[in-house]
């Protein structure tokens, strides 16, 4: 699934990373605990979160996450957008709640990256 398709399905606003909208994403996770992201996320993933702080960008970089979707209408700060641009990350925001957003992506074929 491409980042553009994710943005379309979630009716998401693109904050940065427009040049990467054609990039493929192979799996996804919905998480507000960055320690869980560190433990379970595989590369080429999209992360859905309600956390809006720079640590989200840093965690995404460490785990080769290519796109972050902020749920519940949350928006990244200008500092987060600058940090994401430096690291070639795409940032989106949607008004969907995390459960609904994850469900929509799963229903359209995005994998969770494997079993625990």
Secondary structure tally: strands: 5
- Overall average residue pLDDT: 89
Gross morphology is globular
Strand content: 15-25%
Query: How many whole angstroms does the radius of gyration measure?
Result: 12 Å
Structural class: alpha/beta
- Which segments are poorly predicted (pLDDT under 50) over 5 or more consecutive residues? none
Number of helices: 5
Q: Give helix % range.
A: 25-40%
The biggest beta sheet is recorded as: 5 strands, mixed
Query: Oligomeric state of the chains?
Result: single chain
Question: Would you summarize the structure shown here?
Answer:
The protein has 116 residues and is α/β, with parallel strands linked by helices.
Task: Note down, in words, how this protein is organized.
The chain has 116 residues and is of the alpha/beta class. The protein is built from five helices and five strands; from the N terminus they run H-E-E-H-E-H-E-H-E-H. A five-stranded mixed sheet has the order 1-5-4-3-2, with helices on both faces. Strand 2 (27-30), helix 2 (34-40) and strand 3 (45-49) form a beta-alpha-beta unit. It starts with a helix and ends in a 9-residue tail after the last helix.
